[in-house]
Fold this sequence. Notes:
The complex is a heterodimer.
Chain A: H1 4-13, H2 20-53, H3 56-79, H4 87-94, E1 99-106, E2 113-119, E3 125-132, E4 143-148, E5 151-156, E6 165-170, H5 176-185, H6 187-199, E7 203-208, E8 217-223, E9 232-238, E10 245-254, E11 257-267, H7 280-283, E12 289-292, E13 301-302, H8 308-324, H9 328-334, H10 340-345, H11 347-350, E14 351-359, E15 363-364, E16 373-374, E17 377-383, E18 386-390, E19 396-399, E20 408-413
Parallel strand pairs in A: 6-12
Antiparallel strand pairs in A: 1-2, 1-11, 2-3, 3-4, 4-5, 5-6, 7-8, 8-9, 9-10, 10-11, 13-20, 14-17, 15-16, 16-19, 17-18, 19-20
Chain B: H1 2-12, H2 16-38, H3 41-57, H4 68-90, H5 96-100, H6 107-112, H7 115-125, H8 129-140, H9 145-152, H10 156-179
Helix pairs in contact in B: 1-2, 2-3, 2-4, 2-8, 3-4, 7-10, 8-10, 9-10
Amino acid sequence: MRPAEDIEKMVRNWNESTSAGMDDRVLADVGRALERSQTHAASAEPHRRRRIMGSPIPRIAAAAVFVAALGLFVGLMVRTVPPAYGLEQTVQASHGLRCLHMKSFAAGLDEPKEFWLQCDESGQIEKARWHMPSWDAPEDGAKVVVWKDSKIQLWFKGKPGGQGVLATYSRQQPPFWLLDFARSSDPRLRIAQLKEAQAKGKVELEIDEPMDRAQPILVTATYLPQSQSPGRRLVLRIDPTTKLVASVETYALEESQYRLQDRQEFSNYNVPIDPAMFDLETTVPATVRRVDGDAVENRGLPQGTLRDDEIATKVVRQFFEALIAQDYETAGQLYCGTSAEEMKQGFFGKTRIIRIVSIDKPTPHPIPEIGGLRVPCKVEIEKDGVRSMWEPFGPFVRTTHRQDEHPRWEIHGGL
Amino acid sequence: MLEDRLLVLRCRRGSKEAMCRIYLKHKDYLLTLARGLLGERTEAEDAVHDVFVRFAESATTFRLTGSLKGYLATCTANMARDRIRARVRRADSPEPWNRARGDVSDPEAHAVATEQRTRLKEALTQLPYEQREAVLLHLKADRTFKDIAKLQCVSLSTAHGRYRYGLDRLRSLLNGEVEE
């Protein structure tokens, strides 16, 4: 007789895998659904307002509030001088800024992202440092990134108690994702973009300059339905003395209410930044493993004269052939330069690759922004003594980070 | 758990990459669950597809109160129930579990043909739906009997009973095959 535990184990161990075709279909439809969801959330407000205002009681209440507000406004107008603040003052005050410190708080999360920026006289980024908490990219964990002197250093702190890794890459320019982050965080650009959007009728700006001159000036920017971000609202707090941006809060319209998404705080304008902040080599503990990101000569395979689809297929075939031969060193070099030890400790140490059943024609990565190719394949595996077929979601293959005249290709995910 | 919360948060802001990660993380066990409940591979794939599309459609307003795995498993179970009901309403579709024996239209089952897996699938076909659901939700989706009772609108002891009866029936079916 089979004991009940055996049956339970058998059910627990039964696993189906999705096919590449299914993954394609689901991801494409899910992407569209997500876009619809975003659009719907943004457009929900006017419908609800129409429904609410369809009833006479809210209409009367709204009229009463309007009359009261009008009276209050007229009273204030009589007693105060007109607001003197204009966005131009912030633009003017921001000229010549060279140093900046920013903290970005996401709603519901305590630890902020932090960003230090140092520009040269022409306003180009000279040095930058980012602190990324683990919530920003759980797959990476917490990390610190520094860009200076045409080099980028990434300190992956790893798990608590873990060793961590400091990787250094040569980069003439900061990577695009860092530039994007810098641009989206730069208060000077924010103001310029708002002015432009207002001129195009895409944003409605409201400036509230309090009677108490010690209080910050509030600039509320509401993105209109014709803008690219309908349902979005920014609230900028402007320092009444320096006219510089002190904070920016981003709200999104959800269920007819504006909910806080994140808050950026700016400080230490033009306060010189300690040079040690941009020197990870000497400030990161000696126990952290150093990795030369440029030393990728042995990573991946050289493309040579092969087409992209040919080299991608070759990489995948050699990867699985290496695993069949239990050559984890070679397999790891084709899989992001992973060490043989890490390969053995991971999925492929516990799962034996028996044979390659098929490798199909590569297709573009389902997320165009990521780039590279997916190489659909089917392999026979053995895990816990049970053989089965495995069709990984990927593998995804693309060129290594080093982009030069001799590109190399490697697997970067999807396994 | 924390990773799921962060991914959900990013989905609410429209991150396709986060949604992709959620799909990659949960797709296989949800497909197994749906396959166990519905029998046919294509129908199970459709059910999982619909679960993720609906999840994405509600991403901007979704609030995660428990585990994401549990939530998606419950959605899959509900989706499977809807499909079973639709089958009954159509009445032109024979119970696919009856076709599952020696199903030549399922090339994967033939290709893989792990004897144990095939026998298990066939044995699952013999269980009443509620027992099948209780067994799969508990063993594949880690749902507690309290959760299963809530989903099936029955008492805790009934949910537990369905699981035990389902397991006993599976055991006798699998032993029976061995003895044959």
